[in-house]
Amino acid sequence: MLWKVIMLQGEVHCPLCNGLMREEEGTGHMVCTRCGTLARFHGGILDAVYIPSYHRRLEELRRRHQELLEMIEAEGRKGASRDMRLIRSLHEERQRVLSEYSFYSYFQQFTERW
Ligand SMILES: [Zn+2]
User: Fold this and answer.
1) Bigger pLDDT: 60 or 27?
2) Judgement on whether residues 60 and 89 belong to the same structural domain of the protein
3) Cα 38 to averaged position of ligand 1 atoms, centre (Å)
4) Residues 94 and 65 sit within 8 Å (Cβ to Cβ)
5) What's the gap in Å between 69 CA and the centre of ligand 1?
6) Which domain holds residue 36?
């Protein structure tokens, strides 16, 4: 998958959060006005990014995923008295965490090129 610069009336949007990006004068890269991500493009295709607190966010998501697994397992051990609604909502949160993790991970290759 390639990230093409989405240009609407000359506007460039952040590959991470879709916020508006503006050119940082004299640097050749763009900065997101919403999340602070820096991005460099070549021929309209994303070349490199710098995402503030990238590794911290990945670590948070890893930790939360582990916690959720443990909570699901602990609730499951209660057998017949387990709370199925709680288990379902933990599974739903786990799906959200995994999907954000995979979205963030995708940018690894671009952060390495920064
Ligand atoms: Zn952004």
Assistant:
1) 60
2) yes
3) 8
4) yes
5) 30
6) 7-50
Q: Which of 15, 34, 50 is the last residue of a domain?
A: 50
What is the phi/psi pair of residue 98, to 5°? -65, -40
What's the residue count for the chain? Answer: 114
42 and 88 together in one domain: no
The pLDDT tens digits of the residues spanning 42-95 come to 888 899 999 999 999 999 999 999 999 999 999 999 999 999 999 999 999 999
Q: How far is the CA of 97 from the centre of ligand 1 (A)?
A: 19
Q: How far is the CA of 72 from the centre of ligand 1 (A)?
A: 33
- Whole-angstrom Cα distance, residue 14 to residue 38? 9
Q: How far apart are CA 27 and CA 5, in angstroms?
A: 18
Q: Contact at 8 Å (CB) between 4 and 44?
A: yes
- How many of the other CB atoms lie within 10 Å of CB of 94? 17
Q: Are residues 65 and 34 in the same domain?
A: no
Q: Are residues 58 and 103 in the same domain?
A: yes
